[in-house]
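Team,

Forwarding the record for the chain on the shared tracking sheet. I've put the sequence and predicted structure together so nobody has to dig through attachments.
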Amino acid sequence: MSKPVNKTMIGLFVVGAIVLAVVAIGVLGSGKLFKESIPYVMVFEGSVKGLNVGSPVVFRGVKIGAVSSIHMNFNYATKAMTILVYSDFDPGKIEIVNLDKETAERLKEAGRYVVMRELIGRGLRAQLEMQSIVTGQLQIALDFYPDKPAVYTGIVKTVQEIPTIPTPLQELTKKLESLPIDEILNKVNLAMDGIANLVHSPELKESVANLNIALKDMQTLVRNVDAQVKPLSAALSETVRDTQKLVKNADTQVVSLGTNLNEAIGDGRKLIKNVDGSVDSVKVSAVEMINAASAAIKEAEKVLEELQSTAKTDSVLMYRLTESLREVEKSARSLRTLTDYLERHPEALLGGKGESGGN
């Protein structure tokens, strides 16, 4: 008789076959077995806690690869310990455009790292970045930092190295470590001791007491000033009112004074016109008198000549006539001088001849 079939074994076999089929479909369907990847290595300073195998490598938020392994490198000569982070980049994530056939052939011959070297030359750097604040997981972020120099360690020769830069926290830590903390603390302690001595010094207590006295005096002064302000304000208001009245009275007086001044100016103009007329009439009369005197002198000279021809030269009559003619001639000259002076200075009719005696 044949041995009976073990149904349990058959069931386990079927389940195992199904599991293998699912795994095979998953692996083959993802294409990882047939996908090309480019390995790179990065060397980070300090701790890489939170960075694990499989942590993403991103460029401005776009995942372009993942961490494949993390190794420790010990330099026996320098006794330096270095952390090497290997990662695989998916070349399909980067599409190169505007590439002619000749350049494409040159890049193909130069090798797969030529594009990465050009990007590094433009400032591409790797930096640790927080992936999740909750879990504390890290990721590697790539971006361009042209102001940061490319520092290579040269530990790995077979894989292209991507230069790294410290995180902002690491840079801050370096700056803090470079500060002379002990010296700063000593200065702070000295300053605190000085402040304590000042606070407990008797001079400060005396200064505080004097300040309180000064404040009290100031309050008393303010109260006195407040008491004086009200009467002063009333007196000032009264002064302002008196000033306004004075201004109004002055305005009235100025108006009347202006009217009187205008009238005086009008009278002065009339007087000047009258004086001008008087001067003209006096001038005409003086001229007529001079002319008449001149005519009389001429007639007298004729008579004198006739008398000279009939009388003796030393006679008394002849002497008197000669003296009379001289007096008349002097009077004529004086009258002419007066006429000329009045013509130059007509104001002399009003005020008289000046003390300077000018012509």
